[in-house]
Amino acid sequence: MSFKTILVPIEQHDRMNATLETALLLARKFDSYVEGFALRVELPTAFAVGDVAAVPIPALEHDIAENEQRGRSLFENFMQAHGVPRGADAKALSSGWLDNAPEGDHFVGSHGRLFDVIVLGKPGRDPQGPRMTTLEAGLFESGRPVLIAPPSPQPQMGTNVLIAWNCSTEQARTTAFALPILKRASRVVVLTVEGGAAVPGPTGQQLCRYLQLNGVPAKPLTVALDGRVTGEAVLAHAKALGCDLLIKGAYTQSRLRQMIFGGTTRYILNNAELPVLMAH
């Protein structure tokens, strides 16, 4: 597998530029095709008396068309400014736009099945910013990894990588998805947080052996919680090591449990300042 096809849903928010910059960093590594489409929330429909079918409110139709055009202009202007040609070239960096995408976050998951990775902005508290529902549609409905862009663009990505190993199926799957990046990295650290959130399974040392057999320069590192939650320990060591990418399996615990009690995935989503590759 390689990251030859990249999907970037486009919205009008402050983190969109950082999301596109992150997608482009990955695309330049693999001469990828990057596709954008206008992401819009699912809208209600109004019913006219006596009509059998639902009729969209005309004002909303106008807003939808405007949103589509703004999204397309944002995407195509960005790609043009960064020298990315239009078209779908299998051998060179290229970009394209999908017209008339269906409404709703579910399309991120369904259309994302046709791509090697989906790139999204990091959800936050701003209701006008990237939404958790979009991220979860990508994670749970696409079968593909999601690259979560940090709030601010980074100068590079994937040269110094941290794998947050917790022995889980989700983490093993995410690590396998990341292999094309890991093979190109200068340094890969497999981090185990002793006493942290984990499940029974292979050790970080054993994962390093697997990665080394696949041509990845991986080295293990075990650290203590030292009074922190697991996610805090992971991000602290990512920062201390100067990492430019974190590999993290998403929701080893259930989403409901993490919403109620918190969890490593939620902590990292709320606090990461570097790109994070996630999969479920």
Q: Any overview of this molecule?
A:
- The protein is α/β, with parallel strands linked by helices and 280 residues long.
- The protein has ten helices and ten strands.
- It has two domains: 5-46 and 57-149, Rossmann fold (3-Layer(aba) Sandwich), CATH 3.40.50; 160-279, HUPs (Rossmann fold), CATH 3.40.50.
- The chain has a ten-stranded mixed beta sheet, with helices on both faces.
- The longest helix is centred in the N-terminal third of the chain and has 24 residues, at 58-81.
- It is globular and about 60 Å long.
- The relative contact order is 0.15.
Topology:
Blueprint: E1 5-10, H1 16-30, E2 33-38, H2 58-81, E3 94-98, H3 106-112, E4 117-121, H4 132-141, E5 146-149, E6 160-164, H5 169-177, H6 179-182, E7 187-194, H7 204-213, E8 218-224, H8 230-240, E9 245-249, H9 255-261, H10 264-271, E10 276-279
Parallel strand pairs: 1-2, 1-4, 2-3, 4-5, 6-7, 6-9, 7-8, 9-10
Antiparallel strand pairs: 5-10
Helix pairs in contact: 3-4, 8-10
What tags apply to this protein structure?
38% helix, 10 strands, 10 helices, alpha/beta, globular
Quantity of strands, as a count: 10
Give me the side-by-side strand order of the main sheet: 3-2-1-4-5-10-9-6-7-8
Provide a count of the helices.
10
The level of helicity is 25-40%
Oligomeric description of these chains: single chain
Shape: globular
Q: Whole-Å distance between the termini?
A: 17 Å
Gross CATH architecture of the largest domain:
3-Layer(aba) Sandwich
Structural category: alpha/beta
Largest sheet properties: 10 strands, mixed
Give the number of domains: 2
Name of the CATH class of the largest domain: Alpha Beta
- CATH superfamily membership of the largest domain: HUPs
| H and E order | EHEHEHEHEEHHEHEHEHHE
Radius of gyration: 20 Å
